Amino acid sequence: PKMKPKVIVYKKVDQEVLDFIQETCEVVSFEKLDSDTYPRFFQELKDAQGLLGSGLKINKELLDQAPQLKIVSNFSVGYDNLDIAELSARGIMATNTPDVLNDTVADTMFGLLLATARRMPEMDQLVKNGQWKTMIGEELYGVDVHHKVLGIIGMGGVGKAIAKRAHFGFDMPILYHNRSRNEEAEELFGATYCSLEDLLKQSDFVCLMTPLTPATENLMGKREFDLMKKTAIFINGSRGKTVDEEALVEALKTGEILAAGLDVFVQEPVQPDHPLLSLKNVVTLPHIGSAVYETRKKMAMLAAKNLVTGLQGETPPNLIK
Ligand code: 8YV
């Protein structure tokens, strides 16, 4: 009988997902990669034909240790951890898990936007710390969201789901900046395409939802934060490296912008002594955009399907070109 291709699953997935892969592959699984598991991971990598997981930097150095690799299946929509040019040069397929997470991530981003606008974590702590002595005065007021201008940088699947929430749920006029026009967002949600500069100048909320690419690295720096309204709020649900964090800290401290809601950071987990964490006008989340059971299960199953179909010689549903 034909030998089953060996694959490494390097992120915790449900047994049902492993069982599905095991129907056609020999599976070596790691719940996480760290100093304890890396030695065995690189040992197994020598004759592995498939990889499934998220966040592992897959570049020339790693690929030189994986001579039989045929496909890398990312358990994420973002694939900045993959050196696509190197994978392509070696004829190795790469796939990701778009679409299934759009609504979940858009919910998270809108929750983060509302929490930041109305200072909810700060108010929650005030109650829990027994500081609620009188009815809240204007020094603790937040800002309105409904009818305010939302600027979306990156009108992809998640950006569109955010626009839907803003338009139908909060009567927000929407501006967007993107590599290309998005007629659907314009027709369905009244989104208006504009330059990054105009978006930054006119938006009350700026939501950064682009992939991390050489074009978007440090997209938001001092110049960009200075262009924003002093009453504006910045939300980042993309990747940490799309933002110059020093410039963001400066903008928040000097009042160039009002506040920020962040689900992603340059270094993750973010270190406890990071300057951002000392600011009252910053709301932070530990990269939980898609972190609900049903959605992560859909992502895992999609990553598994991409892996299995690729190894069976078919074109995977989500092949990254
Ligand atoms: C994942 C993400 O949580 O999909 C992405 O790009 O950032 C998140 O949905 C993360 O990559 C781990 O799977």
TrEMBL record:
Enzyme Commission code: 1.1.1.79, 1.1.1.81
CDD domains hit by this protein: GDH
Domain D-isomer specific 2-hydroxyacid dehydrogenase NAD-binding: 110-289
Keyword Oxidoreductase: yes
Key words, A-Z: Oxidoreductase
Record-linked SUPFAM superfamilies: Formate/glycerate dehydrogenase catalytic domain-like (SSF52283), NAD(P)-binding Rossmann-fold domains (SSF51735)
EC main group: oxidoreductase
Occurrences of domain D-isomer specific 2-hydroxyacid dehydrogenase catalytic (ranges): 7-320
Similarity field: Belongs to the D-isomer specific 2-hydroxyacid dehydrogenase family. GhrB subfamily.
Protein name as annotated: Glyoxylate/hydroxypyruvate reductase B
Organism the protein comes from: Ureibacillus acetophenoni
